[in-house]
């Protein structure tokens, strides 16, 4: 991202940031190739600009490497921050226009935060359209880390959340991952509140090799810590479209590599943007 942005800054310095962000008079403006606040390139033109920038960077790197071809180590491989007197890069500052684009006027989104107890159930009770076996509570000793939790070695617990699409059609699910006692859930979108996979995938061990299986949300990892994870759904929810997000816990199965005896999943929130 930085390689694709820095080359614009000298031009902006000469002609001003208004020109840098002017999509009408400048075909290579920042707004022309950015699709969103994450600097993803636009389909039309953005990929071409990014390809040219990457090609330019590769050629420049090759020139640097070839200029030191007879040395054991190219100067380009040296980490100047590790010198006795470190040489640090000049910091990059956002222009007022960039601050508006990336910070103040960030993406419009909607959703629900199950980890925030300030408004309790009133903040999300209207969008929970089905619930079988999920409970909202804080499961830590201090009783301050809330979430929607399903627990059961046989799996099958199901929750359904009504969502409406936003500008970019993306659905983001946040949940806890841990090294023991946590399991795997499945997530999908459809137009019904019924659990259409109740008799199939939701009551089977979530084998990622099975075709047509909904997206797997794996709440298991190796580090001895419990942290939150954010995952984008592969399915899109287009702007103005209303669908139901389903999440169901799968059985613990016979995986002897999993630690602990429980099979838990803790949903922290859902965001649509």
Largest sheet at a glance? 7 strands, mixed
Helix content: 10-25%
Average predicted confidence as pLDDT: 82
Our count of helices gives: 6
Please tell me what the overall shape is: globular
Strand content: 25-35%
By secondary-structure content and strand pairing, the structural class works out as alpha+beta
Rg, rounded, reads 24 Å
Order of helices and strands: HHHHHHEEEEEEEEEEEE
Poorly predicted ranges: none
DSSP summary, beta strand count: 12
Cα-to-Cα separation, first versus last residue: 21 Å
What's the gist of this structure?
This protein is an alpha+beta fold and 273 residues long.
Task: Describe this protein's structure.
There is one protein chain. The protein has 273 residues and is an alpha+beta fold. It is built from six helices and twelve strands. Strands 1, 3, 4, 6, 7, 10 and 12 form a seven-stranded mixed beta sheet that branches. A hairpin with a 7-residue loop joins strand 3 (135-138) and strand 4 (146-151). It is globular, with a radius of gyration of 24 Å. The chain starts with a helix and ends with a strand. The relative contact order is 0.15. The mean pLDDT is 82.
């Amino acid at each position: 991202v930085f390689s694709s942005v820095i080359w614009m800054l000298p031009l902006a310095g000469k002609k001003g940031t208004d020109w840098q962000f002017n999509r009408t008079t400048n075909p290579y403006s920042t707004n022309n190739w950015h699709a969103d606040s994450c600097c993803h390139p636009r389909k039309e033109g953005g990929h071409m600009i990014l390809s040219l920038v990457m090609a330019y960077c590769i050629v420049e790197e090759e020139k640097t490497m070839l200029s030191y071809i007879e040395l054991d180590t190219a100067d380009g491989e040296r980490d100047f921050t590790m010198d006795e007197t470190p040489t640090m890069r000049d910091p990059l500052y956002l222009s007022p226009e960039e601050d508006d684009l990336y910070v103040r006027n960030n993406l419009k989104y909607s959703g629900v935060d199950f980890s925030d107890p300030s408004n309790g159930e009133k903040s999300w009770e209207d969008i929970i359209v089905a619930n079988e076996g999920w409970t909202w509570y804080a499961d830590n000793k201090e009783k301050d880390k809330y979430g929607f939790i399903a627990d059961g070695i046989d799996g099958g617990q199901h929750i359904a959340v009504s969502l409406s699409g936003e500008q970019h059609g993306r659905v983001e699910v946040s949940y806890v991952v841990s090294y023991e006692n946590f399991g795997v859930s499945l997530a999908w979108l459809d137009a019904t509140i019924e659990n259409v996979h109740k008799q199939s995938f939701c009551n089977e061990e979530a084998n990622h090799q099975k075709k047509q299986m909904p997206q797997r949300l794996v709440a298991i990892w190796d580090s001895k810590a419990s942290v939150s994870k954010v995952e984008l759904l592969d399915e899109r929810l287009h702007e103005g479209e209303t669908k139901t997000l389903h999440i169901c816990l799968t059985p613990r199965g016979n995986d002897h590599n999993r630690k602990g005896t429980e099979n838990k999943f803790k949903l922290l929130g859902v965001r649509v943007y």
